[in-house]
Structures are given as structure tokens and as C-alpha cells.
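Hi all, posting the design record for the shared folder.

TITLE: backbone redesign
STEP: 1 of 1
STRUCTURE INPUT:
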């Protein structure tokens, strides 16, 4: 199934008609440069073009009041003076004779997207719209927004398509207060927003944008605010918020649909956000959400004011929706203290609503709230002077790397008598591996002829991934442990720099991995608390790999952050016989691990594990991993054990941190 792209140049046909410093950044070019970038890169041709439509009154009234709609309806006929007058009743927004038409198209575009995805016409999609939506409220325009496109889409998805649980992820750098107000008492819509806050000093300067606004009544726990109290947040801060706050809750929530308030003013270079995350981060944020809701994801444009980073970020998002390999994120740093303080605060208020976060640390001892009130009174947001704007240094960042689809998406290395799932390209060992390799295999493995053949096929697969002729692959071998051992020892030497080896199930995997060329993470039921150095990490689940909650906690809170920090050139995922891991969990694991190493994932399974070949091949070929059934409450000891492990490991692995360093 394809990716929908919704755009119409009509939505560029309104602009600011008078002087207003607060609104001058919201220009029509935001939309045209985004679309033109998709055309120039060839991405738009690969999408399914879905036309926008006007939202009807009834659809707009799903969120807005009649009096508000009646008021906006009058704007097309207003004089310039009336438009200015009408605008004065709202904040940081402007009206134009054509903005009502465009606002209906923007909301209607979001609804078209929901229809396309919920009916299965496409798998996912993006709507490039103006005016944006996430600030507009039931009876008020705000922050360049007229109708709340995504909020209307969420209500529409529930009413028309019977969606039971909708996740809204708002990665725009401003708090979508309009969305929060709309769903704060509604447990069927989980709203997650991060936003520049600076202890309430940043627009919209709301007390209720802070981390302690978790929702009301039956909606308590279903509103998540991650305030950024400093500018300059980077990729590591954003990924930490996903791995340690959003994803665990999102998996427990188990949504039928994911809507994204896709604002790109959270990217580097944006005058509003003043953050430092690079456009390729949106490839990963999108990827991490695509494993939810069976891949049903609708991204709707919100903000983004640096036309260069906006266009690049839009392309990164759409290219991921299309299933292209992800870029490697170069040298991730550690989340900064301020980000850790925010994560610690929000996890501490959510843990009472979400068992998967039950073991989150207490809030920091420094009373963050006190800083909030003082600053708001003292400073408030000073209007930036023109030369301050010019003097703010021009940010530069590298052009995102090309993301080339390999000629072969997925290959298999199988014994002759094993059936090859359709879609996979069967690989026979290629002669061009050189006799040396054969000889080395012969000596080390000392296996019989077909043992050597097995390894030759395996090496062919790895070699063709290294040259990007093949994206990913699956190999059936007679003895997984021996195969891992051999590949790892060989690979550790020369073929690939940095191999992430993920072993699911018990098996003695004692490797000397001190040099860091390989990171071995073993998820099993075996209680091997002791850790053998920085690069061998046993994660033990008391109830074994069949315990999906414990497993997903280990994957999201430990394996993903480790993987991002390690940044491997190849991922070797092996499924030990008798591991007991469920098929859905196994598929989710593959889906998530594909985000590393430009998608070069090699799955190793035991020959008699053929039953798992189909589900494995399906995800390797790019089909969405089926959603995990609703997660049962995690066993207390597992969460505890994983938190203890995180405590121990975070000295070596900064991405595992979820709180300010103890003692603060
Ligand atoms: N220095 C100028 C002050 C501007 N203050 C208002 C900011 C509005 C942000 C709108 C947005 O980016 O959140 C949306 F996604 F809605 F477009
Ligand atoms: Zn914004």
C-alpha cells in the first residue's frame, strides 16, 4: 500500500495584509517550498496524490462552536479594516479574505488523509496545509491557526471510522493548547506534545503547558506535555523523549490510528524554535511511530519557518513514510541536563497512570515549578528587535545524506530444501567472496561441506548488505549460536565496523567484545545479572521472552537508546530456539531495529524455526508489524530489574538516562 500526499496551491493564496511582527513569518512560501522540494526530489511522484476537499460545517463543528464558525464565515466579505478589527479579538493570528476557504481546505485535507488511511486505500500519508491548526480552540483562532485540523481529524476518525483510540503526536515546537483543551478529559485520544517553554517564558506562555497537565477526569494520564526549558535541544534530547516517555505509553495505549501535528519549527535553523535537531531526526521520529497502529499514520503540517530546514524535514518525513531506508544519525550526544529534568518530571507524573512507567524515578528535588512563576512575571517574552533578529547567528547544518533504496530489498540464505517466502530474493553463495573466506570458514567452523555452504551464503548476504546491493535478509542455519559466534568473530575483525548483535533467547554467548567493534545485547529469561563489560549486555526478563510487556519495556527503554548511541553499521538479530518470544513482539522488534544501520538487518534463525519465516519476511519486506495486543500490566519485578539495569548501564551509555544525575 502506498503513501498519500495531499496538497493544493490554493492554500498558498492568502497572506498577511498589514504590519504585524508576530505574524510575518507565516508566509505562503512555507507551503510552496515544501511541495517543490518533494517534486524536485522525485518523492511526490512516488506518492498517491489525494485531492483536498473543503471540510463541511458539520465537520468543523466537531470541534468548534457555531458562533465561532459564523464569525469566520463573515471574513471573506470583510474590508481590510474589518479584517483587522476581527483579528484583534485573537492572539498572534491574522485573517484574509481567502483564509476561510483555505482553512476549510486544510481541515478537509486532514479528513481526506484519515479516509484514505482508515479505508486502507493507502498505508499512511502527509497533508501539506496552511493555515495550521493545533492552537485554534473551540471559539477562538490563535497562533496562525483558524480550524484545528488534527483535532477535527481525530473526532472524525472516531465518529466515521470507529477508531477507538487515537494517538496525536505533536512534534511542532509550540504547545498545541487547542488540541489539549479539546481532548483533556477524553481517554480515547492521547495527546503528546513537546514544546519550547522556558518556564512559561515562551509563547503561548501558559501555565497549563507544563508537564503537570496530565488531563482531567477520565482523561487523566492521556495528556503528555514535555516542556523544553532551554533552547538548543538536539537529536539526542528528542530521541530520549520518544524512547523514555512517548513510546512506552503509546505501546500501552495501543492506538488504532496515529495523527501527527507535524510542525518543523522544532528543527535547526528555525527562528521560533531555536533548537538544534537536524532534519533527518524526523525520519526517525516518523519511523518510530510507524510500528504503531499497524502503520496507520497521518502527518498534517503545522509550523516551520526556516524554508530550508522545513523543506528538508518534510522530505525526510515523506521518504520514511514511503519506506526508504533511514539515515544513520551521526554522533548522538547525551541528553542535556535540562531535558533530563523535563523527562524526569513528566515520567514522575505519568507513572501513576501508566504501569509501563511505574518504576520511573521521583521528581527532581529542585522545585522546577518555582522557576516557572518568577520568570513569567519578571521577563515575559521581549519582542525581538530587528537587529537582534539579524544578529542571531545563522545556523548551518549538513545536507541530509542520500537514502538509497538498494536494488534488492530483502534476501534469504536458506538450505536448499527450505522454502523461500515470496518477495525474498533467494541467495546462493557467490563465488566472488574469494577462496580466503572459504578457507577461513573451513578452519574455524570445521563444519562439513554444507556447514561451509551455510556460512558462505551468510557471508554473501552480509557482503551484499555492506555494498548496499541488498537491504536486509534472513538466514536459516542449523545452529544459530554457532553462526552468531562465527559471523561475529569474523565480522568483528574487518567486514563491518560496529555490529549490533541482538540475541533473543538463552544461549551461552561469551564473546570478547571489549573493543567496541560489536555490541551484544541478549534478551532472555536467564538471570545473568552480572554484566560482562560495556559491550555485552544481558537483559533478563523474569517471566522469559514470552512476557510481552517486559520485552517491550526492555526494547524501548534500553535496546533502542543503546542502538542509537552505538550507531551500528549492521544489525544481527538472532532468534534462539525455544526463546518463547511471541510473533507480534518479534515483528515489532524487527520493525524497530530496521531504523538502524540504514536498514541493514540480518535475521538469523534455526532451520527448524521455519514457521517464523513468514512473519519475519513480511516485516523485512516493509509491511507494517501488526500492533501488539493491549499490553497487560507489567510484572513489578521486571520493571524494577530493568530500572536497576538502566541505573548500572547509564554511566557507560548516556542515552539510557531518564533523570538528572543523582544528587541534583
Ligand atoms: N516571534 C513571533 C512570535 C509568534 N508567536 C506565535 C507563534 C505561533 C506558532 C504557530 C505554530 O508554529 O505552532 C503553528 F504550527 F501553529 F503554525
Ligand atoms: Zn509551531
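Okay, here is what came back for every position:
SEQUENCE:
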Amino acid at each position: 500500500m502506498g503513501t498519500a500526499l495531499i496538497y493544493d496551491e490554493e492554500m498558498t493564496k492568502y497572506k498577511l495584509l498589514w504590519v504585524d511582527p508576530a505574524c510575518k513569518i507565516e508566509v505562503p512560501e512555507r507551503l510552496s517550498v515544501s511541495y517543490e522540494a518533494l517534486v524536485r526530489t522525485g518523492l511526490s511522484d512516488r506518492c498517491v496524490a489525494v485531492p483536498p476537499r473543503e471540510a463541511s460545517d458539520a465537520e468543523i463543528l466537531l470541534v468548534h462552536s457555531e458562533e465561532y464558525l459564523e464569525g469566520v464565515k463573515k471574513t471573506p466579505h470583510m474590508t481590510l479594516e474589518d479584517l483587522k478589527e476581527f483579528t484583534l479579538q485573537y492572539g498572534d493570528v491574522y485573517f484574509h479574505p481567502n483564509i476561510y476557504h483555505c482553512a476549510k481546505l486544510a481541515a478537509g485535507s486532514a479528513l481526506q488523509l484519515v479516509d484514505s488511511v482508515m479505508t486502507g486505500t493507502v498505508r499512511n500519508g502527509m497533508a501539506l496545509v496552511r493555515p495550521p491548526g493545533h492552537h485554534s480552540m473551540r471559539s477562538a483562532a490563535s497562533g496562525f491557526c483558524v480550524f484545528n485540523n488534527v483535532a477535527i481529524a481525530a473526532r472524525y476518525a472516531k465518529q466515521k471510522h470507529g477508531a477507538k483510540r487515537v494517538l496525536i503526536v505533536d512534534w511542532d515546537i509550540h504547545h498545541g493548547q487547542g488540541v489539549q483543551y479539546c481532548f483533556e478529559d477524553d481517554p480515547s485520544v492521547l495527546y503528546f506534545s513537546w514544546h519550547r517553554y522556558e518556564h512559561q517564558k515562551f509563547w503561548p506562555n501558559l501555565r497549563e503547558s507544563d508537564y503537570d497537565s496530565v488531563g482531567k477526569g477520565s482523561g487523566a494520564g492521556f495528556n503528555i506535555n514535555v516542556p523544553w526549558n532551554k533552547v538548543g535541544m538536539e537529536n539526542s534530547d528528542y530521541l530520549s523523549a520518544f524512547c523514555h516517555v512517548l513510546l512506552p505509553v503509546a505501546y500501552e495505549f495501543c492506538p488504532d490510528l496515529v495523527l501527527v501535528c507535524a510542525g518543523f519549527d522544532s528543527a535547526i535553523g528555525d527562528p521560533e524554535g531555536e533548537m538544534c535537531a537536524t532534519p533527518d531526526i524526523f525520519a526517525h521520529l516518523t519511523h518510530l511511530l510507524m510500528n504503531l497502529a499497524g502503520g496507520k499514520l497521518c502527518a498534517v503540517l503545522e509550523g516551520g519557518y526556516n524554508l530550508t530546514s522545513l523543506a528538508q524535514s518534510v522530505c525526510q518525513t515523506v521518504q520514511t513514510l514511503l519506506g526508504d531506508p533511514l539515515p544513520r544519525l551521526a554522533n548522538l550526544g547525551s541528553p542535556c541536563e535540562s531535558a533530563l529534568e523535563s523527562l524526569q518530571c513528566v515520567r514522575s507524573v505519568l507513572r501513576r497512570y501508566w504501569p509501563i512507567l511505574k518504576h520511573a524515578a521521583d521528581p527532581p528535588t529542585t522545585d522546577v515549578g518555582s522557576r516557572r512563576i518568577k520568570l513569567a512575571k519578571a521577563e515575559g517574552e521581549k519582542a525581538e528587535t530587528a537587529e537582534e533578529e539579524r544578529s542571531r547567528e545563522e545556523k548551518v547544518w549538513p545536507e541530509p545524506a542520500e537514502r538509497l533504496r538498494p536494488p534488492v530489498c530483502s534476501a534469504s540464505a536458506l538450505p536448499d530444501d527450505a522454502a523461500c517466502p515470496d518477495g525474498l530474493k533467494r541467495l546462493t553463495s557467490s563465488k566472488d567472496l574469494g577462496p580466503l573466506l572459504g578457507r577461513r570458514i573451513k578452519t574455524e567452523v570445521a563444519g562439513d561441506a554444507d556447514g561451509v555452504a551455510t556460512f558462505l551464503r551468510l557471508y554473501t548476504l552480509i557482503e551484499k548488505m555492506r555494498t548496499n546491493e541488498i537491504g536486509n535478509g534472513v538466514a536459516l542455519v542449523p545452529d544459530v549460536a554457532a553462526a552468531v559466534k562465527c559471523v561475529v568473530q569474523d565480522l568483528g575483525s574487518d567486514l563491518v565496523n560496529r555490529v549490533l548483535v541482538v540475541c533473543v533467547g538463552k544461549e551461552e554467548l561469551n564473546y570478547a567484545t571489549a573493543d567496541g567493534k560489536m555490541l551484544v545485547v541478549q534478551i532472555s529469561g536467564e538471570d545473568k545479572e552480572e554484566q560482562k563489560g560495556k559491550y555485552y549486555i544481558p537483559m533478563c526478563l523474569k517471566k522469559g521472552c514470552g512476557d510481552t510487556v517486559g520485552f517491550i519495556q526492555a526494547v524501548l527503554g534500553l535496546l533502542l537508546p543503546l542502538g542509537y548511541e552505538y550507531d551500528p553499521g549492521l544489525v544481527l538479530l538472532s532468534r534462539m530456539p525455544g526463546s518463547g518470544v511471541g510473533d507480534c513482539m518479534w515483528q515489532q522488534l524487527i520493525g524497530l531495529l530496521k531504523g538502524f544501520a540504514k536498514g541493514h538487518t540480518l535475521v538469523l534463525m534455526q532451520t527448524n524455526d521455519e514457521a517464523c519465516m513468514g512473519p519475519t519476511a513480511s516485516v523485512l519486506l516493509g509491511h507494517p508489524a501488526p500492533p501488539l495486543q493491549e499490553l497487560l500490566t507489567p510484572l513489578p519485578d521486571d520493571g524494577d530489574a530493568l530500572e536497576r539495569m538502566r541505573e548500572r548501564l547509564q554511566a557507560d551509555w548516556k542515552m539510557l538516562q531518564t533523570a538528572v544525575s543523582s544528587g541534583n
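COMMENT: The chain has a mean pLDDT of 92.
Let me know if anyone wants the other runs.
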